Amino acid sequence: MATGETGFDDVTYDLISVQYHALKAGHDYGQYVRDAENAGHTEIADFFRRVMEEDSARAKQCHEFLKDLTIHHAAGPAVT
Q1: 3-class DSSP state for residue 6?
Q2: In the predicted model, is pLDDT for residue 67 greater than 80?
């Protein structure tokens, strides 16, 4: 199992990275929804809501994968 400079296996690092970016984007999209609503663009606000829901689902799926990896002892600091 390959490890990067973090000491964690690549798959764990990748899942954490995707989860972080999905959660961060979801936070940002909340502002986008408000901006579109304030400008009277309901259809665009709805689009941003859908994108936010997709990122939320993506972050949740990463969380489940990470939990499964942890349970099966495949996650965590790499053994050298």
Answers
A1: coil
A2: yes
